[in-house]
Amino acid sequence: AVSTQSTGDRGIPNLSDEEISTMNDSLSVAVIRNPWTRMVSGYCDKIGPMSDDSPGHSFHGISWNIVARARNITVEEAVSQQIYPTFSEFIKIYIVRARKKTLND
User: In sequence order, which residues have a C-beta less than 8 Å from that of residue 51 and are 6 or more positions away?
Assistant: First the structure.
């Protein structure tokens, strides 16, 4: 068992040689979600018309900015008309931003 006593301010446990050996012999597993599934989930949960529409929802501003850029209208128009981006608009803006970020790296 891993010691509950910690060292330093990072909370790194003190391990015996036996515990370190056991950890070195163990199997690690990583579960990774499909990136496209994550995009659909992000759109549905945060950006799209079925997302949380409570006042002050933190992603509405992002939604309206996407609409403004994609449809060449002002953010104020998107807000006043409560327009949400389509999934296609969401993906296009995401790709444009990703390309800009890659070029700037």
Answer: 44, 45, 57, 59, 63, 84
- Average pLDDT on 40-66 reads 78
Query: What span, in angstroms and rounded, lies between the C-alpha atoms of 14 and 49?
Result: 50
Beta bridge partners of 13: 6
Q: Which of 60, 66, 65, 34 is nearest to 46 (CA)?
A: 60
What letter would DSSP give residue 40? Answer: H
Q: Which two tokens stand for residue 4?
A: 């509950």
| Entry pTM | 0.58
Asked whether 66 and 90 are in contact (CB, 8 A), the reply is: yes
Using the CB atoms, write b or e for 41-53: b if 16+ within 10 Å: eebeebbbeebee
